[in-house]
Amino acid sequence: MLAESTYGAWFPPMLSEHGGEIDHLISVVHWFMLALFVGWGIFFVYCLVRFRQRGGHKAVYNPVKGKISKYVEIAVGVFEAFLLVGLSMPVWDWYKNEPPDAGADRCEIRVVGEQFQWNFHYPGPDGKFGRTDAALIDTATNPLGIDWENEDAKDDVFSQEMHLPVGKDIYVRITSKDVIHSFAIPTMRVKQDSIPGMEIPVWFKVKKDATTAKLKESMTQTYPIDKIKWRRIRHHVAVEDYQDRSGQVVLAKGAPLGNNLEQGEKLINTLRESGHTELVLQPANPLEVICAQLCGNNHYTMKAQLITHEPADFDAWVQEMIEDRTAGSEMFEDF
Ligand SMILES: [Cu+2]
Question: Do both 292 and 277 map to the same domain?
């Protein structure tokens, strides 16, 4: 599965346990629509030919009074009501009432959208979210108003990057501070509106082998330097150091090919003139959380980096975040 994890012309890579079913449904709907399109298209052309204007025929403007068309229409209506009330609603009801069990294996995260960023609140090792208070909100340092003095908040983590452990139940509680946003992770086939005043849960599982590290590895490609278009690789970084003729590193491992078109093209030229014929590149970060609801002027910038870890590495990240914050606050106390 990972071998196919590159962005192509069709869907983005699919990295969640349930995503295959969604892709399957989308395929079925598309094939069904194609059949309808072709069928109705043929009927349309038939009518154009069959009822074309010709001598000795006069147009009639009254609707047809046949019984069959009436019954067919009623039957279609009844069938569609059955699809909705008889099939879809029970499935949705069952699904929405069967969240993954709370416990050590469930990773719970509060997600709060705001113009124009995503905020993530993790409960930390104790599994309890600390108190939040609108009065404590500070746009720059504490957008969620977490009460860091609160006992349950001592091991909480606030982040504007989303970090997820692979293979575990992810239980996300989504809300918004201002307007309606839509929490979406295309690669996980997850999307849910975030609505102020409501907290809507969504759950999914990241595939066991879909760690960011492995994804980057599998998306590593060799690009012939003559064919490189900066725009296509601007979110990529070098996998190794590249030197010019004098031996000076002009493109370091982990660095992007310039921050804009001009820089990028200059660097590509330098590398070409230094005798390089190809570059090995990988995405800086292949995954992201986006907002899928037009929520204001800068809607398109409302993205968050998404990083997936092995569960042990995820725990290490949580620990690191807690230590960073406590170290930071102690530093302030010294002043
Ligand atoms: Cu938004």
Answer: no
- Count other Cβ atoms within 10 Å, centred on residue 280: 13
Distance in Å, CA 160 to ligand 1 centroid: 14
Residues 228 and 87 in one domain: no
Range of the domain at 248: 220-283
Average pLDDT along the chain, 335 residues, taken 10 residues at a time: 57 90 91 97 96 86 82 95 94 88 87 95 92 90 91 92 95 95 95 95 94 90 86 87 84 87 88 86 91 94 95 94 81 50
Residue given tokens 């989308």 in the structure block = 26
- ω into residue 116 within 30 of 0, thus cis? yes
Surrounding ion ligand 1 within 5 Å at CB are 181, 291, 295, 302
Helical spans, DSSP H, in 219-310: 230-233, 261-273
224 Cα–ligand 1 center, Å? 38
Q: Is 264 domain-assigned?
A: yes
Whole-structure pTM over 0.85, yes or no? Answer: no
- State the total domains in the chain: 4
Residues 70 and 201 in one domain: no
